[in-house]
Amino acid sequence: MENGRNITGFRSIRNRILIFSILVTLVPSIGMGWFWYDMTHRATTEKIEQKFVDSAAIVEREISLWLKECRYDLRVFANSFIVLDNLQAYYADGGKTDPASKKRQESHRRDIITYLTLIKGQFPAYRRLVVLDREGRMLAASDTPDADRPIVLPDGWQGRVDQAQYFSGEVVFAGDEATPLMPVGIPLHAPGNSISLGFLAVEVELGGLQPLLRAAVSLTSGVQEIVALLTMDGRTIHAVTSLEGGAGKAITPAQIAKLAETPRRLGWIDNGDEVGLVGLVSRFNELPWQLVIAENADAVFAGLLQARNRIILITALLTIAIGGTATIIAGQINIPLESLTDGVLRVADGDLDVAVPVHRKDELGLVSGMFNEMVGRLKDNQVKLEQLATTDPLTGLANRKQIMADLTFHREYYRRYGTEFSILMMDIDHFKQVNDSYGHLAGDAVLVQLAQIFRDSLRVLDCAGRYGGEEFLIILGRTECHQAVQVAERLRLSVAQHVFVHGDLQLRATISVGVTGMRAEDGGTDLIDRADRALYEAKTGGRNQVVAG
Questions:
Q1: What is the crossing angle of helices 13-22 and 28-78, to 10°?
Q2: Residue 254 belongs to a domain
Q3: Nearest Cα to 495, choosing from 443, 451, 541?
Q4: Regarding predicted confidence, which is higher, 448 or 6?
Q5: For residue 2, what pLDDT band results from cuts at 50, 70 and 90?
Q6: Torsion of the alpha carbons at 55, 58, 62 and 65, rounded to the nearest 10
Q7: pLDDT band for position 480 (50/70/90)?
Q8: Pairwise CA distance, residues 137 & 409, whole Å
Q9: Which of 93, 251, 323, 417 could be cross-linked to 25 through a Cys-Cys bond (beta carbons 3.0 to 4.6 Å apart)?
């Protein structure tokens, strides 16, 4: 569809109607029928293409969140003193040749293996956990049947670590069941030291991605569909299909490569006697993967084909009768058509504040009304999606993704303008006992009322978000660290004095708070790490207190 508003020549709808009026006595119905078929075909094609693009965006967003959760898990595992202390001790004994040093070195390695095996047992989705040395050689791996299998690292993985503080490798298919695995790793650093000790990597089983593919499509809608997650060289990671005979018989690697020549653009796939498909390929930004989404072309365009056949029949019957009224009809169509065209172009430009006037109570009026209803639903859905993407559903505060985005904004604003800010990392003391003693609904009530305390106590320029579980992160704008300590103390007292109510139950709760301010030398995670350490000191120091870091 044209994105510009100045369409000239025969492609102009106005000129088409003008020529149609001139030839009204000859081929009126033919022109009208072609116009409607062309517009409906374009609208159907764009709708399917947009549907596929939206589905691909949902899958990519969910997989991106899944990858971030993997990296977060790795950072939690990597903070263990078992790994860091034993790894430092292992290197310390590495340059010695005496038997005692060799024995100690092997003992340190076994301690790391034991820890990795313990973690592996708690996370079934992780095939292996591996510690690599500084050169990427496997130093220790969790105790699994394929523990000695080499881990495949991508080209340039060390540069990726330097840039993004993590790496992800190529998908491999391991075992007799050919399970797709992907390594994800982060660097290991000694506390207070930027020198790398090595890398902690996990091989993630990608079977957990299949529900994400199903969630992005409507395989129960009756339309035959294919959704396949592939590597860039065409190997299938996962495929979900409702086509008879499976995805392998309906689409080939050569056809996928053809679709990939124009990413995110709808293409036709003709398999001869097989099912004809329309689909597109979307490439991921973070991972070397591509997503193929396709549907049965006959099912997609069935209504359009039926409409075309009806138009041909009606054209043959009405050619003689329509000649005398063609000019009047053209004038009646032109006004609402221009309104619809203008509305479609504005929506295509991203403007959802569009209301097409309904001039008549006929088909065009119905289309105009349906267009207005469609735009209204799109606007409502956009608002809902934005709210879901940035808000914690329980507390109404910012979710982890949004609060981290706010933190990034404050950090960049500080580096550009030098505006001070501080953060509070807080945790509800003994929250697990509340859940165990009174139930999770009581725990949820505590979280909701605690969020309300934050909203009542904080300023407009402050940001509060649920960091995870019972842990909260608050960003205090234009606030130095010593001022942030005072704010944290007021919040701590407010929580301690508050009576949390759940039905007939009344509870008391306290919080521990770690406080820190932004510093010029802070790197990407230094601020969070410092607040985490301060929170840890507050909790180990007796809880219900504020500690600055």
A1: 160
A2: yes
A3: 451
A4: 448
A5: very low
A6: 150
A7: very high
A8: 37
A9: 323
Helix (H) or strand (E) holding 247: helix 247-250
Contact between 128 and 144 under an 8 Å Cβ cutoff? The reply is yes
Pull the structure tokens for residue 179: 């399970």
Give the closest residue to 223 by CA, choosing from 281, 273, 279, 267. 279
Give first-to-last CA distance, the chain, whole Å.
57
29 — pLDDT class (breaks 50, 70, 90): low
Which of 183, 209, 235 is the endpoint of a domain? 209
Give Cα separations from 473 to 66, 76, 424, 468 (angstroms): 21, 17, 6, 9
Q: How many alpha carbons fall within 13 Å on the CB side of residue 276?
A: 10
Residues 6+ apart with CB under 8 A from 184: 67, 70, 71, 74, 166, 167, 168, 169, 201, 202, 204
Determine the pLDDT at residue 527. 95
Q: Strand pairing of 546-548 and 511-517?
A: parallel
Instruction: Give domain status of residue 125, yes or no.
Output: yes
> How many domains is the chain built from?
4
On whether both 193 and 288 belong to a single domain, the answer is: no
Pairing of strands 277-283, 167-168: unpaired
- Per-residue pLDDT of 355-374, as tens digits, reads 777 766 766 667 677 767 77
The answer on 227 and 104 residing in a single domain is no
* Shared-domain flag, residues 428 and 518: yes
**Distance set, CA 533 to CA 294, 451, 536 (Å):** 50, 23, 5
Does residue 72 lie in a domain region? no
| 390 CB-near residues (< 8 Å, 6+ apart) | 398, 399, 401, 402
- Checking 496-500 for CB contacts under 8 A at 24+ apart, the result is 496/544, 498/449, 498/453, 500/445, 500/446, 500/449, 500/450
Are 404 and 520 part of one and the same domain? yes
For residue 378, pLDDT over 80 is answered with: no
CATH number of the domain to which 204 belongs: 3.30.450.20
Residues 363 and 411 in one domain: no
Asked if pLDDT for residue 218 goes beyond 60, the answer is no
Tell whether pTM > 0.70: no
The mean-pLDDT minimum among 134-143, 315-324, 495-504, 512-521 falls in: 315-324
Looking at 300, 315, 347, the residue that finishes a domain is 300
47 has a pLDDT exceeding 60: yes
Cα 350 from Cα 40, distance rounded (Å)? 21
Q: What is the pLDDT of residues 102-111, one digit of tens each?
A: 888 889 889 9
Question: Does 63 fall in a domain?
Answer: no
